[in-house]
Amino acid sequence: MNSPVESTPSRPDQWWRSAVVYQIYPRSFQDSNGDGIGDLRGIIDRLDYLAELGVDVLWLSPVYRSPQVDNGYDISDYRDIDPLFGTLADLDELLAQAHRRGIKLVMDLVVNHTSDQHPWFIESRDPGSAKRDWYFWRPARPGGTAGAPGAEPDDNPAAFAPSAWTYDPTSGEYYLGIFSPGQPDLNWENPDVRQAVYAMMRWWVDRGVDGFRMDVINLISKPAELTTGNPLDLGQGSLRRVANGPRLDEFLAEMNREVGLDEHNLLTVGEMPGATIEVAQRVTDPARHELNMVFTFEHVNLDQSSWSKWDLADLPLPVLKGNLAQWQEGLAEAGWNSLYYDNHDQPRAVSRFGDDSPEHRVNSAKTLATVLHLHKGTPYIYQGEEFGMTNAPLTEIGHYLDVESLNYHALATAGGVAEEQVLRSLAAKGRDHARTPVQWDDTDHAGFTTGTPWIPVNPNHREINAQSARRDPDSVFGHFQRLIRLRHDDQTVREGRFQLLLPDHQQLWAFTRTLGDDTLLVLANCSSAPAEIPSEQLPALDGAGVVLGTHPGGGESRLAPWESRILRLQPSS
Ligand code: NOJ
Questions:
Q1: CA 215 to ligand 1 center in whole angstroms
Q2: Which position among 116, 154, 189, 215 bears the catalytic label?
Q3: Collapsing DSSP states into helix, strand and coil, what is residue 248?
Q4: Is the CB of residue 239 below 6 angstroms from any atom belonging to ligand 1?
Q5: pLDDT digits over 451-475, tens only?
Q6: How many A from CA of 78 to the centre of ligand 1?
Q7: What is the pairing mode between strands 137-138 and 173-176?
């Protein structure tokens, strides 16, 4: 059992500025009981692996009780563990065992919405109940017959369903679910809702957790139209338009105060679709006591041609690096960045931003990591990224399990989009790519389970797996270990000022990090062709030493495909 005195690690002020976080999607991480679904005991069994990698923090995607409409992002009991994943005792043990290894644990916090099976929502279905106002209930639109097609309060779609409104025959009204009918939105305007959430968070803090990753937290303050009961015309891309509402900062500051987030030095990261640099500056300014950092979506929305992620577009390197540079500049003074390429909602980094062909997979995974981990902020590694896991061969609709992909396929094909085009979009952006099981070894189910995995293992696990990567010092895994160590050891990596160089270069991602007299130069060839180093446009390289490179040597004037180098420049005299 957890013995807090012995196993709770200290949390110095702003400790998360030097930390590297590892995201676990528990369902796909490690199964311990043969039911084909990853679980908490499976995570405990892999803690030594995570300690060997060297990460400081684990973020657990939701393991609470849930009907699993959206794989746990629909919670029916915030204070219990879903039996799929284990028990509260298992969670306590995971926490204690992680702490014993000096690793902290951050929980996912999903409080923009609950499950429709949560007791709060069940009670709210009764129009006379004190909880009616905990959710958004609205009558049919004027002139509409409640429950009839087209009578929803407005025309807004949900993210994973045709309408954001679901009819409830018992009360003759509709409730709002911005994601899906199984995920009704909580009404944060009601102070009792907020206090109930804070009480639950304090309960977890008392249990010893080290922070929260806050799901779509910038959606909690809804636009005025919604809170005053009027119809709301969000149009396309509706998610974005309910974001960053008028009371967001007020709610976040209140949460921080009431839960003691800063007082306990907890890590707080808010997932914020549609958040601009200005919003992030406000939210992460330490003087305002809201959150430590946010997950921006700007860089993962660049390879789309419209508000919809399914409308694919090419992503030239200058656009990607320019966007990250803007965030570096925007949060350079006050505030702090989170750094990520992928997570359980995004395609695999090496398949999306790198080159996952057998020839270039290893070097492109390494070089992408070099670039990200040398930016200023807190880097996040998504399970499997540390040894270069790729997208899965998902080629027909029967290969997909995710509610988002299935909904998109149904709506798009019904709307006349050609099946091949829909499948092309799904193959590029579907969330199931990130959710295939972690490939631990080359055995039948990749060491993930002795049963039948809930989602098929990527067949490339025979070549790409953690076991072979750990045996090879030159592997992607070894490179991640070195990058993590570098961040721990090197103050310039943690705190140095960022400056982008060669912003228009189509192949090279080049930048410096400077702290006092010390300057690191990162040169990364983000292409599958060799690239000349344009020395005349760079700081003087004489006497520069290679801190870490993907290839041996380092004095040459050209970079091999997907080669990168971190150089320490001679101080100018
Ligand atoms: C963001 C989560 O990361 C995603 O997986 C989920 O579907 C939505 N929020 C709704 O909770």
A1: 6
A2: 215
A3: helix
A4: no
A5: 999 999 999 999 999 999 999 999 9
A6: 16
A7: antiparallel
